[in-house]
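request received
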Amino acid sequence: MKVGGYTLEERFEHRTVEPKWQKYWQERQLYKATADKSAKKFYCLEMFPYPSGKIHMGHVRNYAIGDVIARYKRMQGYNVLHPMGWDAFGMPAENAAIKHNLHPSKWTYENMTYMKAQLNKLGLSYDWDREIATCSPEYYRWNQWFFIRMLEKGLAYRKTSYVNWCRSCATVLANEQVIDDKCWRCDSLVVQKELEQWFLRITHYAEELLKACDELTGWPEKVVVMQKNWIGKSQGLEVDFRIDGMDESLRIFTTRPDTLFGSTFLCLSPNHPLCGKLVSGKAELEKIIAHYGKEDEKIGFHTGHFCINPMNAEKIPLYVANFVLMEYGTGAIMSVPAHDQRDFDFAKKYGLSIRVVIEPEQKSEKNSELRTPNSELLAEAYEDAGVLVNSGKFSGLKSDAAKERIAEYIEEKGLGKRVVKYRLRDWGISRQRYWGTPIPVVYCEACGIVPVPEKDLPVILPEDVKFTGTGGSPLLESESFLHTTCPSCGGHARRETDTMDTFVDSSWYFVAYCFGRDGIAFNSEPRTPNPELSYWMPVDQYIGGVEHAVLHLLYSRFFTRVLRDLGIISYSEPFKNLLTQGMVIKDGAKMSKSKGNVVDPDYLIEQYGSDTSRLFSLFAAPPEKDLEWSDKGVEGAYRFLNRIWGFVYRTQKSLEAGSPPGYDSVAMEGISPACRKLLRKTHQTIKKVTTDIEREYHFNTAIAALMELVNEMNSFEPKDAKDMQIMKFAIKNTLLLLSPFTPHITEELWMHIGNESSISEQKWPEWDEEMVREEEVELVTQINGKLRGKLMIPCGLPDEEVKACALGDPKIKEIIGQQKIRKVIVIKGRLVNIVTGE
RNA sequence: GCGAGAGUGGCGGAACUGGCAGACGCGCUGGACUUAGGAUCCAGUGGGGCAACCUGUAGGGGUUCAACUCCCCUCUCUCGCACCA
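response:
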């Protein structure tokens, strides 16, 4: 029967081929990982998905990248750990429960089942024995265990504070989860609300997390910079300004002690505790509060009070201003209008004096006009470093030195101290939601806050709750959960009803995978590093979206340090190498349901198969860049696979008929030029694919090289047994090199050409440098840098002879004519440039 | 505003430490096989020109025998941070 020019068996039928091998791999447990001290390990991890229902193209891309790496490393002889699991707690499950009257647990587990089948259809080489779901009690009991350990160490604590509150999600958000004043999840406006909350003291590790950023050499620079900025260290000085006529002083924070003499007024945050005492005009204060922290105009008013500048004893006015944040520094600033643009604008607006105390070392045209006080003329603040003027005994010092001297002076006089500030805040983890890990504490009328003892863990999330979508967390309604006895006194106690931020779950899941099927287990005291963890961790290659640059990745770095300090592990950084893959774009925008530009992986796999889907997403762009979706590109990938299939199939008969057994390499000697060419191309391709993978995982160019090899094979016509052996060698290596990208078709063809063990168990091919080398090179001749001729010359000629060849070329001779040759530059194996002229 | 990255055919993208710009794929054009082609195969394909040649990597300058690559200026786009004192 003829179908589209192929006989049926000549076609690559992905619908039968792909499931066949998926079953085969699964039955043989080819991807099961076992710790083995004698083998070099490689831990390859992709960010685990939230079980939202179905996978999307972003997942396909992410997991295809990870799978190529895992398969490649396996073939290179590494003992590879490549696990997968589910970030299974979270809001969508709860929303689904309210909407469809379906329990979050049921919804989540059903989604997991469906998505797992989808992942298996992609032929991903996971060790499913290590699968985890963060919503299972066996998993979240360790969240609770960590929480209690952190409570013991003072790393978890409770405090009342203003928190970010999302009305739509009816819960608190961490600072990291607020993006442009909006909720990271639902995009609605976040408001401030005063609540009592549990916090994790990530700031305890602020300095270490910052310092260790420099050791993250396997991370994209961009992500490291984002982390550094997020931690936001600044060194400065706190200074007390006495309030004139009161027995009270005001502490300010500055990173520019060198400008202290230029402080001509002070500004107070409207939320500063002293405001109540200092401000009489409540209406004015209300107005400032209304504009507090907003990026609009800078406004303020004079409190009527004055402070004393400790450097020059000057009386300067004290203002309240909307742009001074209570959350940073001390909530009060010294204003130096000459050297800070904000203060400058403010001073201009309210007619406050401006005093220049820093002058540039070398006056340029731009700032030569810098004058003031009295004779004004200062168009904008001069914010750079320079030399101090109008600064008493410190005048003449450079900014850097002056910072030191002035800080010393302030400290000696007891007027303040040097401090380091971080932008990083402690991590608020309380969530007023149901579908999360219960925080394992109880509130006892007699004993207060009491942690749940280790033997009573896990505190199980009750299943029998109602989802109304109104009021607070369903846990508040669950009488059986709410009421308990105090572990300390046995009296009545009430359970904590808040659950943990789901980012807690994902902060250590990579550690959980290391334990395998026997289940997660951390030693009790005295703790020693767990051997499984010591073997597998850290993650050698982590792959995921850049959207987690400061959320998940920072929390994980924090948790890893907590685990280290608990004695569970002995290293500090969880992820040695990080690859942040680009987004999948269609019609110029990220694929999303709301934009209606999604491509359904189910459809793609059904229509073209998993190999095609993988190949396209790996070929169309390097992994770190955005991937522009193209239906035609998918067809191109499909066509390529069919070409290989057809080629191997068609040549199979003649191969069987006349070739010697084996698919091993042959020597260059005694074979035809066409053979030498194909053999050389094969070795060159092995080299190219290997180095492209090694060089930042540039799969797109690796695949391009394989396409070139296949093109070359297509134009090769074997005539005798020797030729066929060359052909066999080319086929074998094409399949091996392609197998990490498209495991199904290569497995099928691999078996088809007479192999018995899986292609994924084979050794990665090696190239022979001798075989890679060309015998002849095309020599490019340039005259004055312009391309004028090309000729073939043997490799390895000495420069003098190469030069003679170029000059001997009749065409070149003709162009040069009577011109004088001034210089000849020979670049080995590439070109000759003849420079003419007088 | 600050920080990071990018700008190359009709499109996605190649080009390692400066050395033939446009690999590979898509699309397009022509041809073969066809009742048919949105299948497959073959050939061509940056722009201009019949051609020899000229020209071309956002724009302008520079360094060099030689620049997509290095330096300076300008423009555009993407991402991150954003009153952090």
